[in-house]
Amino acid sequence: MSSTGDDDRDSDEIVIHHDPDIYAEDGSLRSDFLMHVGAAIADRDTIYLRQHVAGLHASELGDLLEAIQPEQRVALVLLLGKDFDLAALTEVDEGIRLDIVEHLPNEQIAEAIGEMDSDDAVYILEDLDQEDQEEILAKLPFTERVRLRRSLDYPESTAGRRMQTEFVAVPPFWTVGQTIDYMREDDDLPESFTQIFVIDPTFKLLGAVDLDRVLRAKRSVKIDAIMRDTSHSVPAEMDQEEAAQLFEQYDLLSAAVVDENGRLVGVLTIDDVVDVIQEEAEEDFLRLSGVGDEELSDSVAEAARSRIPWLFVNSITAFVSASVIGLFDATIQQIVALAILMPIVAGMGGNAGSQTMTVTVRALATRGLDIHNAPRIIRREAGVGLLNGVIFGAFIGLVAGLWFQDPDLGGIIATAMLINMMAAALAGILIPLLLEKSGADPAVSSAVFVTTVTDITGFFSFLGIAAWWFRIA
Amino acid sequence: MSSTGDDDRDSDEIVIHHDPDIYAEDGSLRSDFLMHVGAAIADRDTIYLRQHVAGLHASELGDLLEAIQPEQRVALVLLLGKDFDLAALTEVDEGIRLDIVEHLPNEQIAEAIGEMDSDDAVYILEDLDQEDQEEILAKLPFTERVRLRRSLDYPESTAGRRMQTEFVAVPPFWTVGQTIDYMREDDDLPESFTQIFVIDPTFKLLGAVDLDRVLRAKRSVKIDAIMRDTSHSVPAEMDQEEAAQLFEQYDLLSAAVVDENGRLVGVLTIDDVVDVIQEEAEEDFLRLSGVGDEELSDSVAEAARSRIPWLFVNSITAFVSASVIGLFDATIQQIVALAILMPIVAGMGGNAGSQTMTVTVRALATRGLDIHNAPRIIRREAGVGLLNGVIFGAFIGLVAGLWFQDPDLGGIIATAMLINMMAAALAGILIPLLLEKSGADPAVSSAVFVTTVTDITGFFSFLGIAAWWFRIA
């Protein structure tokens, strides 16, 4: 737990200054540790901070930054100075990252970035404004500047933006012995790697060799005899989500990233891909409930901004549904029981519709649902809707009939439930499918459409049948 | 694309018989490929199937099994016979897996399992009933039987169940040269590996060396000089979700799995962890909408079974909310506009509450929300609720007042909206937090409680204020 040199700091693999004592049972940071850190920040006790904070793993330091008070964050970073591992910023919310980076001198950022893996460096640089970015890049050695700029030139959320530009590449005619000797002598190798790429003199990618293959082969074996094809190399322009799917499908640990001419420009590693998978799952999860790009560190105004658009759209559709009820005001005035029961029909339809919709949106996101099995799933959902309609129509019809001592009312609500459960099932599957087919993100807008369908169908069928049955209009 | 030997088949790493032509643009299997396969199955054309299907990667074969008709699946597997790569069964829904395994003779399963990585083998064995499991295990060589039984003895969803029992381990006093020579000569190494473990004679774990470290070190260097500590080894009894969080936090590629005495029993690899992360995210996603453990291949009855419990609970709470409306039947009879507008108040509250709840449940699942920042987030959500209440209270009050030409009504609905938006915000964050604290899964039951709160608050505040204001009771 003592202070740590630069060499240790930017490596996840060699020595981890892991202090198991900083986490409590439930996975959150221990309160007494946070208290000590808070006190040390208040007292400007850099000795304590160097001893107990500087040596933390980047992700532990990230957890710490997220747990302390916002006003303590910048203070902690400034107190640690060069002992603050900037890689921790890749582990925190964007809001916190930007707040801290803003308070650091560009010199310190440039120095830290020079020591980082290129993918971490890009992660921090990409959020900065153009001016700061240029100022920091200008302070870096030529090779690193060129490498980082190449990554930054690729569009956001592409493999090129997420790749690491440090890799090991050898020509195909080298022997295993030559390759091992090269690795023993070269000091400029990446921090850690799991495969060696094989390239021609123009950097065109020819193949790859996993390290275990190198270790199993005799020294005299030529590299091209043990290399495998790289059918799973990733074009730099490929969307990160698509690249993540390749990793998942073929259980890759890392993949070569190539430019439009098939030249090796970097390597995408599984740890970045895990982050992408997490982000994408989170995005769908939040969007389905009408929450935009939101982070836990967001302020009231930022959080409200991410949620108000959907609430606004819903308030419009709520008025549309209300106007359907308005068509039957005379009916309601005579039979108030209808007003009491109608939210049940609409609400149950909404719940059933959202179940089907959630299953559909998730299946679309994981590519489990496509044109080949869509007809089968649509038939299944219609079957589930029918079954739900019969079961809950009967149950709710019975309870409502007993409650109001009116078998007619029970029969009417049962029929309306059956209709609305069928509508819910079809809306729940067809709306996301149609949105996907039209190129829209089904996670974003399915919910509005589905609840509008189930509200309108629920109110219209229940009140409409009642008006017709009791002959009130 | 020609036929493939056993040695190639169970490896993801060496030669991938990848046929890029089988996928269409949108990532689904190409229709003409499916048509050809379907025709070949119908014609029992084993030559076509061996040529075009047997060589597919396990995950491609899995996609194919999911895309063809249920009755074609078993036929395809039986036609391919020993050329069918059983590892494909780890890539399909449990329902499809069980259906296929049931139709295969235990001899064929045993033979295939003998060739698989142990983690894949356990994945298939664990779903079988005790009798079949024993029969298959009995047909395996002693060592493999012991290894698989050891994995199967660990509870479901633990690291011990998901681990691979094949690994490379060496004593600490070996040199790098000895280690490389050992790997060059031993034919019984795992298919692929990224680190070497260091153990004492009793198999107690002492450390680990990543392969790139081995390659960089001189032959004379002792292993214990380059090994790192294994503070991130995983106890075999650890829940897979907890293990996945370790992988994420420390960007691990693989981790040693140890028994209660610290002895090395297996290795957990990142590809299994990616599956766990996916599963857990999916589970929360589905549960929040009241869908249980459900698969796309489920029948109508199975899907209905996973969804009816939640719909049933909701139908009960819907009656409770309806009875709140029932308290105000006299008020509604005199002012029908109340019946028309009341679903807007309840519905908007439900939407806002579900936004907050979704953010909270997700933050709890990813451990972003804990006791240290909970007070801050609760204050934020209360702020968002107040802001939403003011904005949508004003907007909906204005529209409703104009619609019914009644400023009083506008004022009443605005006030009710403000109250319900605040209730929604507090319910949306406090209910998941309390459920988590009491040890329940917040994803499962938060939604029922939150909508019940917003429905009751919405109806009671709107109708109650109206009854008091217009003095009707």
Automatic annotation (TrEMBL), chains A, B:
SMART domains: CBS (SM00116), MgtE_N (SM00924). It is a multi-pass membrane protein. GO terms for molecular function: magnesium ion transmembrane transporter activity; metal ion binding. Signal peptide: none annotated. It is found in: Cell membrane; Membrane. Keywords: CBS domain, Cell membrane, Magnesium, Membrane, Metal-binding, Transmembrane, Transmembrane helix, Transport. Its main location: membrane. Residues 227-283 form the CBS domain. The chain crosses the membrane at residues 308-328, 334-352, 384-404, 410-435, 447-470. One of its GO terms (cellular component) is plasma membrane. NCBIfam families: mgtE. Acts as a magnesium transporter. This is Magnesium transporter MgtE. It comes from Sinorhizobium medicae.
